[in-house]
Amino acid sequence: MTLGSILVVDDDENDQFICEYTIRRFDPDIRILKAFDGAEALDILRAETPDAIILDINMPVMNGFEFLDRYAAEFEEHAPVVAMLTSSHLGKDRERALQYAFVKSYFEKPLTAQHLRVMAELLDG
User: Is the pTM of this model over 0.90?
Assistant: First the structure.
């Protein structure tokens, strides 16, 4: 299975740009969905399930952990791969994120082609 669609959830426009640029270079056929906070991401997910979600932690309105709580409670079917992409170097954030069965990876910014390869391999595995 390849990455057909990715939802990028990050409040920073520069990080959104970097993610889109990196994804397009990795595979220009990947459909990119964008949300600037967790609440907006939930709205998108009510309409469709992407192959992967790239999620920041620190965002206004609804942060990454609040999103994970709501996503776990509200949706029976989850994206096959949810990856945290954050500037947080805190081990406790990593541990907290990986407690969710659907969170498969925890990466530090910026997004790289290697991160996308890992996500694609998780879909294939």
Answer: yes
